[in-house]
Amino acid sequence: MTQTAATREWLRRNLFSDAWSGLTTLLLLGGVLYWLPGLIEWTLVKAVFRPDAAACGAIEHAGACWGVVAEKYRFILFGRYPHAEQWRPLLATVLLLLVIVVSGLRLLNRSGLFAAWVLALPAFFLLMGGGLLGLTPVGSDQWGGFPLTLLLATLGMLLAFPLAVLVALGRYQSDLPLLRILCTFYVELVRGVPLISVLFLASFLFPIILPPGISIDVLLRVQAGIVLFAAAYLSETLRGGLQAVSAGQHDAASALGLSRWQAMRWIILPQAIRAVIPSIVNSAVSVFKDTSLVTVVSLYELTGALSLALAGDAEWRSYYLEGYLFIGLIYWIGCYSMSRFGADLERRLAAGVR
Amino acid sequence: MNSRRWQGFAAQAVLAAGLLLLLWLLLDTTAANLHERGIRSGFGFLREPAGFAIGESLLPFDSADSVLWALVVGLINTLRVALPAVVVSTLLGTFIGLGRLSPNLLLRGLCKAYVEALRNVPLLLQLLAWYFVVTDLLPAASAALEIMPHVFLSKSGLFMPWFGGGGACLDLPVRGEMTISGGASLTPEFLALLLGLSLYTAAYVAETVRAGILAVPRGQSEAALALGLSRVQSFRLVLLPQALRSIIPPLTNQHLSLAKNASLAVAIGYPDLVSVANTTLNQTGRAAECIALIMVVYLVLSLLTAWFSVWLERRTGHWAERS
What we know:
The complex is a heterodimer.
Chain A: H1 2-14, H2 19-45, H3 53-59, H4 67-78, H5 87-105, H6 110-129, H7 145-172, H8 177-192, H9 195-209, H10 218-244, H11 247-255, H12 260-275, H13 277-290, H14 302-311, H15 320-352
Helix pairs in contact in A: 4-7, 4-14, 5-6, 7-8, 7-10, 7-13, 7-14, 8-10, 9-10, 10-12, 10-13, 11-12, 13-15, 14-15
Chain B: H1 2-37, H2 67-99, H3 105-119, H4 123-137, E1 145-148, E2 151-154, E3 157-160, E4 162-164, E5 169-171, E6 174-175, E7 180-181, E8 184-186, H5 188-214, H6 218-226, H7 231-261, H8 273-284, H9 287-315
Antiparallel strand pairs in B: 1-2, 2-3, 3-8, 4-5, 6-7
Helix pairs in contact in B: 2-5, 2-7, 2-8, 3-5, 4-5, 5-7, 6-7, 7-9, 8-9
């Protein structure tokens, strides 16, 4: 009896607190009940899960054709990487993801973490590229799909971070006005233009401005473009953190006899970074999503690999939507878990500040 | 202290010299590379005929017109999609942001689901999906959906009544055997871009609005209610003016990202500035010039928006202490 009373009280408070709320509830409930059955029917009931193009054709989009994922998942996930060797990108991806998760959950101490990254990155390149330990060489033009997305995003963040710290310090210091102007110019320039123009720059312009003998692989050029782009945004975040550190900290550090460099390294910077960790996580989410743009300059990461997988295949070409939903889910899981992680961190950090 | 100043001076001199050297090296190798590949440089090509067609434009354009005019048409196309998207995303985002603060659990949940679903998937992917839905899953023009009287939606885009014959009467679209004629039309590319940009940005606007309202101390609305204002009055007269101060600066940033994100048009073939510049780049090989043009136009756009934002901040009475 009290159970029903409690339920009724909960309903009243959350769904029917006044006439407006009640009306909203009824309208929304009506909408949900109207759309939901059709949605369930399309995704599950009438859907075809077998990689059977004829069966998919027969239902004429009345249900989803998840068969396209069953048929093409290896192409979507690994792009044009040689079929027989695809255990390598799989292993490389799992390894890198593992290191990222371990870092996020702080399961290792500082030196352990450093060792893990120092081992994981070369291992990733060794597995992907081969050429050693009896692994067949696979050129980076054949890398694709999720490993490429992960590589671009991870290296993008890892390399952008130190650059962003330097640029933020360049804008923060007051001894070298020329350096400050340069750093400001770089940050405002990059933040003012779309990422696509930076990728065009990396893809079309880098080859022209380099000396003739030197040619840099397109993957490396695009990675450089992503790093330059991400670093501008990150440095602005870090500059905000630097400004949040109170002036008393500088005074206290010099009173302790620390040099300005020591004060920056041990007192100011750690507090500045700590203050903006949630924003840094947001930047990581953005970089992860932004990697999808490299498909415009013909690198076949997850989004590009899907187009590559379906464009040339008349049998499966009409099921792009299912393909988009599949890779959309992969991106979503990555971004959502990162932003949850960021929110948790923010709460924990807020709890630590008195 | 004096020695530190000299050190700083010397460091800056070295920095300047290094920069000039680097710049000279870059320009020199670039010039050599261009010469070797037989590519001329300079902006003279802007006056040459474009030689390509543009799918849709507000201004008259044909392939004999100059490259410069093509780029102007592209810029107008960027604005044509970005401005309506700003309006739609702001309205939709505001409603969703307010919905996330509603006491109603169902409304709150659905709004949260919207934000989490759209924010965590790349915009490019959403644009490609919308474009596919419009061009592949909608019926052909002959079987167009009449979503409202005389408004037809099909693979060929959206057709709606428009003022024809000098504005005297409405020009109604008519569904024919193969195509729809009459009225005004929006292409599938435009529709997909407008829809994708608006829905994606709305999720960010919603978060901005929510954060802005949450930033107003709770005591303010309680005090307003205690003064005898109704809930609507307290929101309009007390909560909103204070929330707007912290909403407007990030909101203009969202609008600026929207304008920059409009450059993803290149992926679905809508002829915006970046698409037109990209086509020009591929035809003329003038990479440096075309990329520079894109960047300059966007920088000017950013600056104008920044000024507008400052003006708006002052109007809303917010004198931010910015350093």
